[in-house]
Amino acid sequence: MKFFVLACLAGFPLALSHDVGGPLALVAFVPLFWLARHGERVFWLGALAGFTEVFIAMWGCSSYGYIIPLILALQGAVVRGLACWLLRHRGVLAGISMVVVGQWIRTLPPLSIPISVGHDLVAWPSLAQPAALGGGALLVWICALSSYAVVDRFVRPRLLLLLVLIYSVSGLYAAWVPPRGEATAVRISAIQGGLPNWVYAQSWIDPKARQLIRRRYLAVAEAEAERGAELVILPESAVREDWPGQNPMAQTYREIHDRGVGLIAGINSRRDGEWRNSALAWPAKQAEPITVEKRIIVPIVERAFRAGDSEPQLLPFKKLALALCIESIYPGIFASMPKARWGLVITNDAGVGSATPRRAFERETRLRALEQGLPILRVAQDGRSYLVAANGAIVDELPEHLPGVLRLTSLPARRWTLYGQLGNWLAWLSLVILVLRLRRRPSGHGPTPASA
Question: SS3 string of 84-104?
Fold first, then answer.
């Protein structure tokens, strides 16, 4: 019984890592790996820890209810349980490879929502630089190796040497690989309304709430167009009025375009009798706007919407790659547009309240920048709204939960990355290692030998 209590407790540092990120991720696996080496019925111990980890991390999302946390927690239980069983019976390489492969599978929509201890390193950009070489998979390897080095003193010197080697190669890459091109001059105004979701719910019956939304977005957008912006950006579902239609939102967007100003704004569009969570992309010199439909939607939460079926495309705003909300947490969206000059994420973080996923999902944007060597502008309804450089460092940012305008005059240069060229090479290698270790003879039921 004591091991099952310890398994529940082992889920807490993992869940806390998803919330605060940074160095905690380097040791978050320590209790789980200790249980895998010394506990009994290790699959169930790992499963209990994984369930606790994900359920706690996902609980409290304002619009996710309890079904999504439960489903994701069951997925986490299977992955952590298998990892512990493999670590015990097939050795440390098999166990860690399962952690990496399990995380990789969770980045393939719509199977799951990726919440990863490795990705938590992005909270400290200096710790996450190896992502340019091996993506999120390499960050997961780093966290797993550093945690296992704490647990097993016999392999500790070798694992620490390997970690030093990884960060040394990453440091040499950062120092020697030059930017691809120069910074790009722009005049962009990105608007953050700072409104919680309850204001939108209230707006259906309260004219004052509707007027507040229009003041925070439409009035500010018009003012920025008059101020001389060449592109005005509003976040996902900033103003929830019909497009096309005869309403203040549609009228304002047309007036902005008539001024010769480009516009990107989240809208709810209707096609083939179904609602689509979309973005209106209207270049200044183009007569008609481009509608980009959200291709990945959150099950249950976005049941009122139909997922878009169009292929990702570069938009004519200086080769822009656009991701809508949750699309940004999956690596495939930006990877599918390798010729992009810069990226844009428009999102509604207010949809998850102040719970852990708000911070975990936000870090995925910075990870995409590191993986692809791509500067990305993130525009959120109530924050965080920022510009992140190709090295994962935030260049400029607005305060959370407050209204504001992020005015940009330049975009940082891109940079070449190994991950951008080879994709998920390390995840595939981890799968190969896992298969090879599965063919290995079981190591018995005792603690994993140091030679494993």
Answer: HHHHHHHCHHHHHHHHHHHHH
Task: Tell me which of 3.40.1280.10, 3.40.50.1950, 3.30.930.10, 3.60.110.10 is the CATH number of domain 182-415.
Answer: 3.60.110.10
Q: pLDDT per residue over 220-271, tens digit each?
A: 999 999 999 999 999 998 998 888 888 999 999 999 999 999 999 999 877 7
Instruction: Please state whether the peptide bond connecting residue 216 to the residue before it is cis, i.e. omega within 30 degrees of 0.
Output: no
Torsion angle, alpha carbons of 146, 150, 154, 157, to 10: 50
Burial class (CB within 10 angstroms; exposed 0-12, middle 13-18, buried 19+) of 452: buried
Which of these, 433, 436, 452, 435, lies nearest to 444 by C-alpha position?
Answer: 452
Neighbouring residues of 377: CB distance < 8 A, sequence distance ≥ 6 = 188, 190, 233, 342, 343, 344, 345, 386, 387, 388, 406, 408, 411
Give the C-alpha separation, 25 to 116, whole Å: 9
Q: What is the pTM for the complete model shown? A: 0.91
Tokens 């309890």: give the residue: 66
Tokens in use for 53?
Answer: 């980890």
Query: Domain locations in the chain?
Result: 2-177+421-438, 182-415
Q: CB-side exposure of 424: number of CA atoms within 13 Å?
A: 20
- Over residues 396-421, mean pLDDT: 95
Burial of 402 (0-12, 13-18, 19+ CB in 10 A): exposed
Cα separation of 357 and 126, whole Å? Answer: 22
- Structure confidence at residue 357 (pLDDT): 84
Q: What angle do CA 271, 274, 278 make, to 5 degrees?
A: 65
Residue with tokens 């090879």: 436
Q: What digits encode the pLDDT tens for the residues 119-147?
A: 999 999 999 999 999 999 999 999 999 99
Which of 351, 435, 428 shows the shortest CA–CA distance to 104?
428
